[in-house]
Amino acid sequence: MKKVLLLVGLLFVQGLALAATTFELGRDYYYEKNYERAKYYFIKETKKNPSNYQAYYFLGLSYKNLKDNSNAVVALKKVLELAPAYDLTYRYAQSELRNIENPEQAKKEYAQDRAAKKEENLKDNYYDYMLLGQKCYTWESFPITVYVEPYEHSAWVRRSFLNWEKASKNFVTFEFVDDPTLARIVVATTKKGIPSANGGQLLGVAKWRYMPNGHLHSAKITVLKRRPEDNSKYSKEHFVSVLQHEIGHSLGLGHSSSCDDIMGTHCSYNEIEERAISERDIKTLKILYGAAN
Q1: Whether 76 contacts 93, CB under 8 Å
Q2: What confidence score (pLDDT) does residue 50 get?
Q3: Does 143 sit behind a cis peptide bond, omega within 30 degrees of 0 on the bond before it?
Q4: Helix, strand or coil for residue 79?
Q5: Rounded to an integer, what distance in angstroms lies between the CA atom of residue 248 and that of residue 268?
Q6: Domain with CATH 3.40.390.10 in the chain
Q7: How far is the C-alpha of 100 from the C-alpha of 73, rounded, in Å?
Q8: How far is it, in rounded angstroms, from Cα 75 to Cα 38?
Q9: Degrees (nearest 5) of the Cα angle 176, 181, 184?
Q10: How many Cβ atoms from other residues are within 10 Å of residue 225's Cβ?
Q11: CATH fold of 144-288, please?
Q12: What is the rounded distance in angstroms from the CA atom of residue 30 to the CA atom of residue 59?
């Protein structure tokens, strides 16, 4: 009788998993550049979950890659109807629509954006830039408890947090715990690719939960530890650089426009040199927490 119940339970769980993979299947086919097959699954997902704006976004990208711009525009405009304005998917959809509907204007705006970023990078902080189109939250107090899921290079994780303590001169502090239920920040690693909102792959991601008073309640950081293409390990320097960026997000920081900052976006990470936490990172962090000099 126990065996029968176990089998039924397994079938039930598997059924749930299969029912939840329509979007993931579409995304997998999209990354494989099988856009026709990806389109099929994203259409299926939008019919099943009509509020899933990420499915509409990837559907729009699939149509675009299939040279079907009219349907791409319809799908991308649906993203703007459904997604909150501060969500990156909303901003990516806006950009894709401009590129399709008015490519010449998109080129001009791109040039203007680059010029604005160049001017922005001359400032001693990126607080105003960070707040463009997004909300930022803070922790109520320090130290923040941290749990590191089992990982062969846990010392690399500790180093990344200690680097933030050192760079901030202990403005932010952390306490490592052995029990995940006591932790406010949990750090995990993965060998699987981490999909991004714009159809690419992420090296790491930080997700938060908030309290009613607007302060952060908890955060989960996940970092890619192996290259998806050949399963080889990243170096310590690469791993630490990526994790330091995600720790910044877990502290409430958004992106900087400069790759001289650890919070720079669309920046490259090499295998032999750690990217340093900059003075601009710390100044912006202190402004966020209301403690700037």
Answers
A1: yes
A2: 92
A3: yes
A4: helix
A5: 17
A6: 144-288
A7: 8
A8: 14
A9: 55
A10: 20
A11: Collagenase (Catalytic Domain) (3.40.390)
A12: 9
Q: Give the number of other CB atoms < 10 A from CB of residue 86.
A: 12
Count CB-CB contacts under 10 A for residue 122: 7
Query: Which band of pLDDT confidence, cut at 50, 70 and 90, is reported for residue 3?
Result: very low
Integer angstrom CA distances of residue 216 from 13, 131, 146, 211, 212: 32, 17, 14, 6, 9
Give residue 4's pLDDT band: very low, low, confident or very high (50, 70, 90): very low
C-alpha distance across the termini of the chain, in Å = 69
DSSP for 21-71 reads -HHHHHHHHHHTT-HHHHHHHHHHHHHH-TT-HHHHHHHHHHHHHTT-HHH
**189, 226 contact by CB (below 8 A):** no
Quick one: tokens of 25? 């299947």
Pair of tokens at residue 209: 């939960």
Residue type, 96: E
Portion of the chain with pLDDT greater than 90, in percent: 44
Residues carrying CATH 1.25.40.10, the chain: 2-101
Q: For residue 151, what are the contacts with CB-CB under 8 A and spacing of at least 6?
A: 157, 189, 225
CATH superfamily, region 2-101: Tetratricopeptide repeat domain (1.25.40.10)
Long-range CB pairs of 45-52, under 8 A, 24+ apart, other chains included: 46/78, 48/22, 49/23, 51/82, 52/23, 52/82
Q: Is residue 9 scored above 60 in pLDDT?
A: no
CA distance 42 to 68: 15
